[in-house]
Amino acid sequence: MDTNTFQTIDSIFNPTSVAVVGASRTPGKAGSAFLKGLIAARFKGDLFPVNPEGGEVMGLPAYRCLGDIPRPVDNVIVAIPRAALPPVLEDCATKGVRMVQLFTAGFSELSGEDGLAQEKQLAARARSCGYRLLGPNCIGVSRPALSLPLGPEGILARPGHVGFVSQSGSLSLRTAQVGITRGIGFSKIVSFGNGADLDSLDFLEYMGMDPDTTVIGAYLEGVKDGPRFVRILKDICRTKPVVVWKGGATEAGARTAASHTGSLAGSMAVWRAALKQSAAMAADTLEEAGDLLLGLQTLPPVSGKRVTIISGLADGGGGESVAASDICTSLGMEAPPFAPATVKALTGLVGSVGSILHNPLDLSQAYGRPERIRQALELASGDPNIDVVIFEAVLDFLYAWLSDETIEALFSMLIELSPKLGKPVIAILPPGINEMPRLELEKRLLAAGVPSYPSLERAVKTLARLHRWNRQRAETEIESWDRGGP
Amino acid sequence: MDTNTFQTIDSIFNPTSVAVVGASRTPGKAGSAFLKGLIAARFKGDLFPVNPEGGEVMGLPAYRCLGDIPRPVDNVIVAIPRAALPPVLEDCATKGVRMVQLFTAGFSELSGEDGLAQEKQLAARARSCGYRLLGPNCIGVSRPALSLPLGPEGILARPGHVGFVSQSGSLSLRTAQVGITRGIGFSKIVSFGNGADLDSLDFLEYMGMDPDTTVIGAYLEGVKDGPRFVRILKDICRTKPVVVWKGGATEAGARTAASHTGSLAGSMAVWRAALKQSAAMAADTLEEAGDLLLGLQTLPPVSGKRVTIISGLADGGGGESVAASDICTSLGMEAPPFAPATVKALTGLVGSVGSILHNPLDLSQAYGRPERIRQALELASGDPNIDVVIFEAVLDFLYAWLSDETIEALFSMLIELSPKLGKPVIAILPPGINEMPRLELEKRLLAAGVPSYPSLERAVKTLARLHRWNRQRAETEIESWDRGGP
């Protein structure tokens, strides 16, 4: 991607002003929803509703057409019926806007060849008029750091350094929401819909070059240029981790994809080969994509597969330990026995009746005492056989066994200790009947560099993939990767 | 199982009085925790703390020994160090109690052969003295309908008709908690620890005969008598569905299991054969076990694999539909095209621009209007090609697009309509940033016979297994299964 194109796309993510064509006083309309979202998010730029009736919309002066706006307009969001497009696009050209984001749908996703021809015309027209086109059938761009929210839903993701490129509007929103609940921060999010002009490959290439983006995620139903896709992916993977969530992986999915964004989903074999050649990480579901992005964003490189799993912070832990061994082994990580010196030290610390001093480690006999648990964590994570530390805190057990003061002391200890262990640390916080304190703990742990997963399976699966990625990087001489700030 | 044994075990689940040996004024002790749990749950029977110091414990008169209790004692919970056991067991014999539940640990799980020999002595002694033994190293029995809670945590599961048998205390608690959050109700829960006297097979056989139990779940790390296990499982599966969650499935897990409950985990091949011969359903994780139990408890038999998936109740839905096709196909269910008449009627109802009128069905263009969504649901579920109905409600989208009144109207419609569709109905309610209304909707849907799952994958995986079970039943001429009350 040449510097010029990079700068153009970069400016799309950094508008100083946004006009919304189709914003009206009627609630429930997409244009009104876009404007409402921008106002609610407190977008750090100028906002111009465009409505043929003029007057005021949501407290802002509405302009009858783009030409009436007295200041420059960077991005234009268009949410009007297809038939009403031509004069608006004419105005966009005259006004000299940078980007037109078409929420308007009804092109190749609906009428196949005919729609595709119309899309090509739209793109050609954009090129000749000097603006770039996003969509049609898309919810557009979001830049959390500028409070530029995503879509008519106005979802403002948490700011951060994950760039997300999506062929689906709703799945980009779902990803942003998973980010809000799990603590994944985004540099930029774009949903490009049918991608008549700018499409997945442009945005992937941009994210690869963008210094503000250190981790890349993509939801793709199909790409138009297979060889270019492989080339770009290989290139990006040299410097940044990429998670690709592929929609339309089966025949039934491909059929649905065609009518969703008019994509030719392509054979899954080609996709797998592309991912393999490039060291990109495949995700099959939203949960998997979120798990990987959270881990990549938060954890230092996972350089080994030997895990210690610590459970039973209050009572419980035995059954969890048994299950934990199975999970590690079956998902490609290892929970090796501790070194004899570690076992000896642990026995001295927590005794042995009713608790399991192997790895996985059941700390029930520490009875939730923060100081003992700290020492046990230090011993287990300091073991030379261990690369990664996982602890499981079942909040329902903690609340059943311990006083609120002890629980707080335990949490403070975990938060303070984790960054000092010198190894990647992951928390397992299973959902239960104490959701509010659980989510609060999740937030505090994240701030200390510890990502939380709802189940051990999902954590271990993520770790195994991150470990494999780390090995692939070494094998393919991928350049060193700078994860950037938290 | 003879009637006598059945009645004995049944009485263990229905005590009219419980004594807790080891309950004291010192908080944090297991005996105190058991008593506290029983009081907090308002156990519907007599409670007797036993403590050598006498006096009062938590407002109840404490007895120096069992013999001092002036009334009959059914169940005795013993939570004292191993060395202090002999005189207490002597007292149990003299008092003529029905069951002794040993929380006390430190037997075969700790010292292998020696511990096993001691356990055999405990069991022989129980038999000769006329009481039954639970444990050692166990948290015992729970009967939610009698407010008899589980373990020292005092977890009171939701009453219902699922019987759960667990070799692990903490995983029985976790299962009860998953039941509380997801709406699974339990007839009886038992965690038998090392199972010196009564063990997994006794309780499985009991649950099979128990008229109050219509669905059975089990967490097992190993069984002592393989052929008897297969025989019992085959026998139970003739009348009730059984979900077996196997711990210690890998070598590492088996190693951990040995030190957890002293179990010989046995080769996984033997387990798989046992499950296959019996039509029992295998679960690999707590989540899978919960998903299956919830479905079995709530849904009518899944007699076909053709699913309709309806998304986009407010905005969104396109990407979800693409992903949904893939998920169905890859997990062994089908999302077949609708009959032409259905497609025609749907087009008349919601138009076609930007929405996907295939199956999976994207209803974005109904703009959250409850009446249109009702009609679309009726059309889709009434299609002769469809056996099961799944709808996805992304609450974060609903709250972004619709007024609170419309959302409530939509929920009321879904709750009222679902039982009338005449087919199994499942809701997908992904977690997000509106957790409280989501959990509330989950509860209301459950009361209408609609189980909720957090992701489509988990719902479809569950449905596929239930459908397979239904087919196995037909093939092996399993007797008709009465799911009982909700």
Which strand order spans the largest sheet of chain A, edge to edge or round the barrel?
8-10-9-11-12-13
The computed structural class of chain A is alpha/beta
- Under CATH, the homologous superfamily of the largest domain in chain A reads Succinyl-CoA synthetase domains
Helix percent of chain A reads 40-55%
Topology:
The structure is a homodimer of 486-residue chains.
Chain A: H1 3-13, E1 17-21, H2 30-40, E2 46-50, E3 56-57, E4 60-61, E5 75-78, H3 85-95, E6 99-102, H4 108-111, H5 113-129, E7 132-134, E8 140-142, E9 159-166, H6 169-182, E10 186-191, H7 200-209, E11 215-220, H8 226-237, E12 242-246, H9 251-261, H10 268-278, E13 281-283, H11 286-298, E14 307-311, H12 318-330, H13 340-350, E15 361-362, H14 370-382, E16 388-392, H15 395-401, H16 404-417, E17 425-428, H17 435-447, E18 452-453, H18 456-475
Parallel strand pairs in A: 1-2, 1-5, 5-6, 6-7, 9-10, 9-11, 11-12, 12-13, 14-15, 14-16, 16-17, 17-18
Antiparallel strand pairs in A: 3-4, 8-10
Describe this structure in words.
Two copies of one chain form a homodimer. Chain A is α/β, with parallel strands linked by helices. Chain A has three domains: 3-134, NAD(P)-binding Rossmann-like Domain (Rossmann fold, 3-Layer(aba) Sandwich); 140-298, 3-Layer(aba) Sandwich (Rossmann fold), CATH 3.40.50; 307-475, Rossmann fold (3-Layer(aba) Sandwich), CATH 3.40.50. The first copy, chain A, has 18 helices and 18 strands. In chain A, the strands form four sheets. Chain A has a six-stranded mixed sheet with strand order 8-10-9-11-12-13, with helices on both faces. A five-stranded parallel sheet of chain A has the order 2-1-5-6-7, sandwiched between helices. Chain A has a five-stranded parallel sheet with strand order 15-14-16-17-18, sandwiched between helices. In chain A, helix 13 runs antiparallel to helix 14 (370-382). Chain A is elongated and about 80 Å long. The mean pLDDT of chain A is 89.
